Amino acid sequence: MAQIILKPKGKIGIMLEAEAIRPDVMQGKKKKEIEELQIWLGPQQLPLAEFFDVEIEDKGQPEETKVLVEGDVSRIKRIGQGMKAGTIEITGSAGMHLGAEMAGGSIVVHGDAGAWAGMEMKGGVLQIFGDAGDHVGSAYRGSWRGMTGGQILIGGNARSQLGGGLAGGSIVVDGSVQNFCGVRQGGGVILVKGSARRGAGAEMTGGALVIFGTIEQFLPGFLKAGTEENPKLGDLLLEGRFDKFTGDYAISKNPKGSLYLREA
Known about the structure:
Elements: E1 2-8, E2 16-17, H1 23-26, H2 31-35, E3 38-41, E4 44-47, E5 52-57, E6 65-69, E7 76-77, E8 87-90, E9 106-109, E10 125-128, E11 151-154, E12 170-173, E13 186-192, E14 196-198, E15 206-211, E16 215-217, E17 223-229, E18 232-233, E19 236-237, E20 241-247, E21 257-262
Parallel strand pairs: 1-6, 2-7, 6-8, 8-9, 9-10, 10-11, 11-12, 12-13, 13-15, 14-16, 15-21
Antiparallel strand pairs: 1-5, 2-3, 3-4, 17-20, 18-19, 20-21
């Protein structure tokens, strides 16, 4: 396996945009070539070496390449954006747009992730051990179609509009979420092991949204459709007894969205 190690140099003031940090872009390049990859600092493009020390170990194909980022990169946006193969592992926290539009490979973050992580994701696995910001797995501004494939796993909590416009794939949150989780969801599965605030499933037309805890403000556009014991949603087997609701009737006369709420 080829391993490329990036070590941040000091503190970062203005946020950087670094979509060049992805294994399938760095694969096969020499150290100097990687150091010369361009990173955006405001309106300027500067070489990656201005911000990172670079080390390379071994060689391999894109799907065998790992980029290890040692340290906090919470002020660096777009790491792994559009990646198709390989692995990125970040030992600290990551900035906005992490893994946006990724189609394959895996990203593992041992800290938190900023807003728009996994935006319009098409495939691969994004695992965040800490908390995540707003709009994880969502459609971008002006678009209605969010994540279409892959998996997002969040070990902590997530903020608002998780899975907005979700069309496929799955998002699992071990903690709780804030407002409008699954807004405009049309497919896929969102599973929240904690609770949700308000607007869960708003304008939902398809897919499944599962809340293990409570919903502070339950939408009136959902109607109870029965109770299920240990329901199975694709590859996900839910343990317990769940009230099943269909909706959102506020947006459609025949919605196909399913909202599962575990009984206390």
